[in-house]
Design goal:
HD domain-containing protein; 15 helices; dGTPase-like; HD/PDEase_dom; 8% strand
């Protein structure tokens, strides 16, 4: 397997890390879009595998000796459903629970045990506040890569992430940086939110979610949690359910016919913003949101929490 990506310096991969990357659970991430259904209507098309490589690189860069955390970085997303959060919410799944279950599979457990890494320690890394997951108020490496990578795919960065690593640090308290780098990180967070909370991308998630919900209700079947994105689309296309086929057709081929309004009519799709990310890096020992620039970025993020209706012809 060739593992490379353009955002961060090369990292020497340890043999057991290579083995984890070659497991079925991690390889499956190559076929899951990190941006969910938004990948179908935007240029942000990288997979959860590329994101995983980035998170692992960052973790190995800042926590070189922490083998459990490095393993957790490789395995942290393996429980994601196809198209990620849109389908997960629809079916009532929790990808964190699925991730823990897959980490305890024989294939992964064997690699960890053979290299004297306790499965319990890896799971704990994903359930505790630390540099990978972040803390209550401070961003961690998982989300740092998400925001960097999404904006890189949009061509919306004026500095490459590998250029700013010398100005960043990461401890168990989360990511910390100088003022300029903190502002860069917050700009990435804001720009990413402006895209994935736009009406079009909200509609993409909703169209897919509604199609999946209708399919599962009709078939009384929710056994799609470990499918890939393409496998899910194939299942929906073969559903022979008129509403599912119509929703999928709009999502894949007719998004230009969508119209959006902030006036809720009670018809069409209701587009709700589910969550606004409110973490920030540390600056001088405090959250960057305590600075004037950080507070302004949070204010702009909160303004994105709107509700729309979407209809199509």
């Amino acid at each position: 397997m060739i593992i490379n990506e353009p955002l961060y310096p090369d990292i020497c991969m340890l043999p057991w890390e290579k083995a984890l990357f070659q497991t079925r659970s991690v390889k499956r991430l190559k076929y899951l879009a990190h941006y969910g259904a938004g990948s179908l209507v935007s240029p942000v098309t990288h997979s959860r595998f590329e994101h995983t490589v980035g998170v692992w690189k960052l973790t190995a860069w800042f926590f070189h000796e922490d083998r459990a955390l490095r393993a957790a970085a490789i395995l942290h997303d393996i429980g994601h459903l196809p198209f990620s959060h849109a389908v997960e919410r629809t079916l009532g799944y929790n990808h964190h629970v699925l991730t823990e279950r897959l980490i305890q599979s024989e294939e992964i457990c064997t690699i960890l045990r053979d290299n004297k890494i306790r499965v319990e320690d890896v799971v704990a890394c994903l359930n505790q506040e630390n540099g990978l997951t972040g803390t209550r108020d401070i961003i961690g490496l998982d989300h740092v890569d998400s925001f960097f990578r999404d904006m890189y795919m949009m061509g919306d960065v004026d500095r490459l992430p590998n250029e700013i690593l010398p100005f960043m640090n990461c401890t168990r308290a989360g990511v910390e940086a100088d003022e300029t780098t903190c502002s860069f990180i917050m700009n990435c967070i804001l720009s990413d939110h402006q895209l994935f909370l736009s009406p079009l991308l909200l509609a993409a998630d909703q169209l897919l979610a509604k199609a999946v919900h209708r399919y599962c209700k009709h078939h009384n079947d929710v056994s799609i949690s470990l499918l890939t994105d393409d496998e899910l689309l194939s299942v929906l296309k073969r559903s022979q359910i008129k509403e599912v086929e119509e929703l999928l057709d709009v999502l894949l081929y007719q998004t230009e016919n969508l119209s959006f309004s902030e006036t809720l009519t009670g018809e069409g799709l209701l587009l709700n913003v589910q969550k606004i990310y409110n973490k920030a890096p540390l600056y001088n020992g405090k959250s960057y949101v305590e600075t004037k620039d950080g507070a302004e970025k949070i204010r702009q993020l909160q303004q994105l929490e709107q509700t729309y209706s979407a209809e199509w012809t």
